[in-house]
Design goal:
Elements lengths: L12 H9 L4 H10 L4 H8 L3 H13 L3 E7 L4 E6 L1 H4 L2 H15 L5 E5 L24 E5 L10 H5 L4 E2 L10
Antiparallel strand pairs: 1-2, 3-4, 4-5
Length: about 180
């Protein structure tokens, strides 16, 4: 029996969430949006995603209120994709998934996520062990780890070699 493309027979909040974010590329697009990536070509170059797939994912995420499309240039018209509050709520999920992946499938730490207020490394579910409670994405400092390529080919990866707060627009420097 072929696997269906939706979960209409499932009465489950996880199944409904997977309708929106369960496709292979979608959480990586959301991750990059949390990192501050906003422009189509920056998503494209950093993810290595096919154009048609990226366009479809951005359209779905925008339609579902995870991203918001904003015009940043009129002539020629150019838009950027800004993560919304709904999208930002995925931050603890992505951090937990990343920590799980690091624990089971990776030997090196690519990024550190610290509470900007106290400098403490965040625990699973984006909790600060020192301050207590979940740290909102805007209060997270992302610091490159030793496992990152020190000379990456794409401009987004180069920009992410510097410490930065999540959600702040990523500044891409010309090559």
């Amino acid at each position: 029996m072929a696997l269906g493309k939706d979960y209409v027979t499932q009465e489950c909040a996880i199944a409904r969430a997977l309708e929106i974010v369960g496709e292979r590329w979608t959480l990586l697009v959301v991750r990059d949006a949390l990192y501050g990536v906003r422009r189509y070509n920056d998503f494209l170059g950093h993810l290595g995603i096919p154009r048609a797939v990226l366009a479809a994912r951005l359209q779905t995420l925008t339609a579902e209120g995870v991203l918001e499309k904003r015009r940043y240039q009129e002539s020629p018209p150019r838009d950027e994709y800004v993560i919304t509050e709904r999208g930002t709520e995925l931050w603890p999920v992505l951090l937990s998934l990343g920590l799980w992946g690091r624990r089971h499938f990776s030997e090196s730490q690519l990024r550190h996520f610290r509470h900007a207020t106290c400098g403490t490394e965040l625990a699973a579910y984006a909790e600060c062990p020192v301050c207590g409670g979940v740290v909102p994405a805007a209060d997270v400092l992302m610091i490159p780890g030793a496992g990152l390529d020190p000379d990456p080919a794409d401009p987004v990866s180069r920009a992410l070699l510097k410490p930065k707060r999540l959600l702040e627009p990523l500044v891409i420097e010309p090559a």
